[in-house]
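Continuing the series of single-chain predictions for the mutant panel. This is the parent chain; the variants come on the following pages.
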Amino acid sequence: MTLIHVPRPPKSASNPDRPVSSLLIAQISHLQHAERRLPLRYRTDRYVHAIRTEGEAATYIREVTEAIHRAHDDAAAERAKRARKLIPKIAAAAERTRRKAASGAQKKQKGPGKK
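Parent structure:
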């Protein structure tokens, strides 16, 4: 595979005091929509219509992205915790089912009235 060299942007490209562009406004809007779907404990207290600079936008984007990751990690941990509790119950139920099926097969082999 061919390696493509991408030059670093100049230091002047980053300006936290620059007004937000329409692209950043659209990204903020999408993140706000995603944030609204999060449980309340993960949401930020930011009023997105007050974001005026790239620095403020970067802070909001970072906060929401971290909140989404935290929510996902917590949900995955909760699912894993519930799965650990269910495994023994399922295995025990399967063992009982196997024992019942085996005893039923033995009764069928003997037949009714045969000893």
